[in-house]
Amino acid sequence: MSKVTKPQEISVTRPISEDLPEDKFHQLDAFIDNMGTTKGSLIEILHKAQDIFGFLPRELQLYIARKLGIPGAEVFGVVSFYSYFTTKPRGKHTVSVCMGTACFVRGADKILDKFKENIGINADETSEDGCFTLRDVRCIGACGLAPVVTVNDKVHGRLTEDQVADVVNTYRRKEE
Fold it and tell me: Domain 93-174 is of which CATH architecture?
């Protein structure tokens, strides 16, 4: 008979800062406490934590580890393995340039360079105004539309270098 693992009822110190406010910990705690079991739920909990906080800094990862009674290294291992998770705050708009084979042979590297130039940041950085985060990703899974860029959840297929400025300006206008 397997043992059901419930969230631990221990008092865990919360790292509180401007980026990690107390009310967000209450939301995360409520989510974890309402789970029937936390065994095998680490990824689900990390998804929820990133949804609530926007990113998963080291302090939050350690908090989750203590809350679940697992080693911090286990949490860090999952966070660092999956590209979905981020340990740094992201901009309002995440621009992901596909660098998979089909996109790369159709000029994705040049598209990425144009985004760097237009936004003024390198890959894996966030603009100072918090508007954009630029990422180069391995494969988006839309090879027939190569080269492909996503901005948040919107797919921009068959993108050309000349269209990059228009894409950036469209999202900048949304912030004004």
Answer: 3-Layer(aba) Sandwich (3.40)
* Nearest alpha carbon to residue 145 among 133, 135, 132, 154: 154
14: closest CA among 43, 53, 44, 70? 53
Residues 6+ apart with CB under 8 A from 136: 96, 97, 99, 112, 123, 124
What is the C-alpha separation between 72 and 66, in angstroms, rounded? 8
**Domain chopping of the chain, boundaries:** 1-89, 93-174
HEC profile for 137-176? Answer: ECCCCCHHHCCCEEECCEEECCCCHHHHHHHHHHHHHHCC
Q: Looking at domain 1-89, which CATH architecture does it have?
A: Orthogonal Bundle (1.10)
pLDDT in tens, 121-147: 999 999 999 999 999 999 999 999 999
Prediction pTM value:
0.72
Strand partners, 155: 150
Q: Which amino acid is at 95?
A: V
Contact 14, 63 (CB under 8 A): yes
Rounded distance, CA 125 to CA 138, Å?
A: 17
